[in-house]
Design a protein that fits this description.
By secondary structure, this protein is an alpha/beta fold. The protein is built from ten helices and nine strands. Strand 5, helix 4 and strand 6 form a beta-alpha-beta unit. The chain binds guanosine-5'-triphosphate and magnesium ion.
Length: about 300
C-alpha cells in the first residue's frame, strides 16, 4: 500500500474567475456559493475531498481586490492566510484575464516555494486558438507552473487537474474526518444561500452592504426553523430590501426558502427580518461577530 497523502490546496485568483465553481467541482459538493457578480465569496471556505489514500483540503478564497473598507481588508487577510498555509497553490484566471490583478500577489506567487498550478478557466467561451495563446502566455510568465486550460462549469479537465494535484500532495495523515466536505456550519450555509439570492435580486451596492445573521436554526421533526436578520449599513437600504408592501422581502424569502428546501431536503420555515447596524463593514466588533476575524 502507498503512504497516505494529504495537504492544503489554496485557490486564489482574480474576482469572478470561477474559484468557487472550481472548488465545488473538485470536491463534488456545494461548499461555496456561486454568482455572476464579483465579491461573491467573502470568507475562506474549506472544501474537503478524501479517498482511501489521500485527503485534499481546498481553500476557496475571495477574489483579490484593493480593499476599500475593513470588511474587504478582512477578506484579503483570508487570502493571505490561505497563501501562507498552502502545500499547493492554484492561481485561477479567466481566459480573458491578461494579468494577475495585483502586482503584490504576483510577486508573492512567483516567490512561493510550493507547487504552482495556473489554471485558465472558462475556456468554453473561447476558440482553440485563443486557448493556445493563453497557455503560451501564462507558461512564459510562470515557467515553473503547471498551466492547464479548464472549464470548471462544463467540467472540462477538472478530473485531470484533480489527478495532477493528488500527485503533488505531500505524505501525511488526514486533517479532517473523511466523511465531511467543509469546515463550515449549516448556519453558515443558510446565511450564504440568503446572501446569494440577494446578489441575484438586488442591484448595485445593496448586496455588498449586507450581512446575513442567522439567529435561530432549529431542526424539528418535520422541518427546520430559521430566523435570520439581514443587516444593512444604512436605514435607507432597509426600505429597498423590504420593498413596496414588503414585496421585495417576500420575493427574497420565497427564493431562499426554495433553495434551502432543496439543500436540506426538509420543509423549511424561514423568517427574515431587516435591521440596520450603522457602518457595520467598518466596525471591528460587528466584523468579529460576523466571522471576519477583524484585528
Ligand atoms: N462560461 C463559464 N462560466 C463559468 C465557468 N466557471 C465559472 N463560471 C461562471 O463565472 C461566474 C463566477 O463564478 P464563481 O465561481 O462565483 O467565481 P469566483 O471566482 O468564486 O468569484 P468571487 O468569489 O466573486 O471572487 C458564475 O456566473 C459562474 O457560473 C466556466 O468554466 N465557464
Ligand atoms: Mg467565489
Amino acid at each position: 500500500m502507498n503512504a497516505h497523502k494529504s495537504g492544503f490546496i489554496s485557490i486564489i485568483g482574480n474576482p469572478n474567475a470561477g474559484k468557487s465553481t472550481l472548488m465545488n467541482a473538485l470536491i463534488d459538493a456545494p461548499a461555496s456559493i456561486i454568482s455572476p457578480k464579483v465579491q461573491t465569496t467573502r470568507h475562506r471556505i474549506l472544501g474537503i475531498v478524501s479517498g482511501e489514500e489521500y485527503q485534499m483540503v481546498f481553500s476557496d478564497t475571495p477574489g483579490i481586490i484593493d480593499p476599500k473598507y475593513k470588511m474587504q481588508e478582512s477578506m484579503m487577510t483570508f487570502v493571505k492566510e490561505s497563501l501562507k498555509d498552502a502545500d499547493i497553490l492554484i492561481y485561477l484566471i479567466a481566459i480573458d484575464d491578461t494579468k494577475i490583478g495585483d502586482e503584490k500577489y504576483n510577486q508573492k506567487i512567483k516567490g512561493h516555494q510550493v507547487p504552482l498550478f495556473i489554471l485558465i478557466n472558462k475556456v468554453d467561451l473561447s476558440s482553440q486558438e485563443e486557448v493556445e495563446k493563453a497557455v503560451l502566455h501564462w507558461q512564459n510568465e510562470y515557467p515553473n507552473a503547471k498551466v492547464f486550460p479548464i472549464s470548471a462549469k462544463m467540467d472540462f479537465y477538472v478530473k485531470e487537474t484533480k489527478e495532477a494535484l493528488i500527485n503533488e500532495l505531500p505524505e501525511g495523515e488526514a486533517y479532517f474526518p473523511k466523511d465531511i466536505y467543509t469546515d463550515k456550519s449549516e448556519r453558515f450555509l443558510v446565511s450564504e444561500i440568503i446572501r446569494k439570492k440577494m446578489l441575484f435580486q438586488f442591484k448595485k451596492e445593496i448586496p455588498y452592504s449586507v450581512e446575513i445573521n442567522v439567529e435561530e436554526f432549529k431542526h424539528t421533526e418535520e422541518r427546520i426553523e430559521i430566523r435570520a436578520f439581514i443587516i444593512t449599513e444604512r436605514n435607507s437600504q432597509k426600505g429597498i430590501i423590504i420593498g413596496h408592501k414588503g414585496n421585495a422581502l417576500k420575493k427574497l424569502g420565497t427564493a431562499a426558502r426554495g433553495e434551502l428546501i432543496k439543500v436540506f431536503d426538509k420543509n423549511i420555515r424561514l423568517e427574515l427580518r431587516v435591521k440596520t447596524l450603522k457602518n457595520w463593514r467598518n466596525n471591528d466588533n460587528y466584523l468579529k461577530r460576523f466571522g471576519y476575524n477583524a484585528k
